[in-house]
Specification:
This protein has a single domain, classed as Tetratricopeptide repeat domain (Serine Threonine Protein Phosphatase 5, Tetratricopeptide repeat), CATH 1.25.40. The chain contains eight helices and no strands. Helix 3 packs antiparallel against helix 4. It starts with a helix and ends with a helix. Pfam families: PPR. This is Pentatricopeptide repeat-containing protein.
Length: 119
């Protein structure tokens, strides 16, 4: 499933990506990551945020890849409130942020005009 999502997303075929994802009986962190990243990469940031909500409702825990992509979606939408909520979510669950997530987080705050927070 994840390979098919990746294949169709590279061609920009979001419809096929969504059909493959919806047809999966079991959705792992990897498949959620693949579809969220796919939506962010083709400029469908609003959809990626809805997918994150759906993911959290299924009790699948977002990993650093999902978080990085969601910060990218929030950046493109200048959605400071949503980005801050994700930042707090990461801190609350006690996850260690790797360099990639830290860089994406700084980028998010900078793009949203929150220079002091980014610093």
């Amino acid at each position: 499933g994840t390979s098919l999502i990746d294949f169709y997303s590279k061609g920009g075929d979001v419809g096929s990506v969504r059909r493959v994802f919806d047809d999966l009986l079991v959705k792992s962190t990897a498949t959620w990551t693949a579809i969220i990243a796919s939506c962010v990469n083709v400029g469908k940031s609003e959809i990626s945020l809805q997918l994150l909500r759906n993911m959290l409702e299924t009790d699948v825990v977002p990993d650093n890849y999902v978080v990085s992509n969601i910060f990218g979606a929030c950046s493109s939408l200048k959605y400071i409130k949503g980005g801050k909520e994700i930042h707090c979510y990461v801190l609350r669950r006690g996850a260690k942020m790797n360099v990639t997530v830290s860089n994406v987080l700084i980028d998010f705050y900078m793009k949203c005009g929150e220079v002091k927070t980014a610093r």
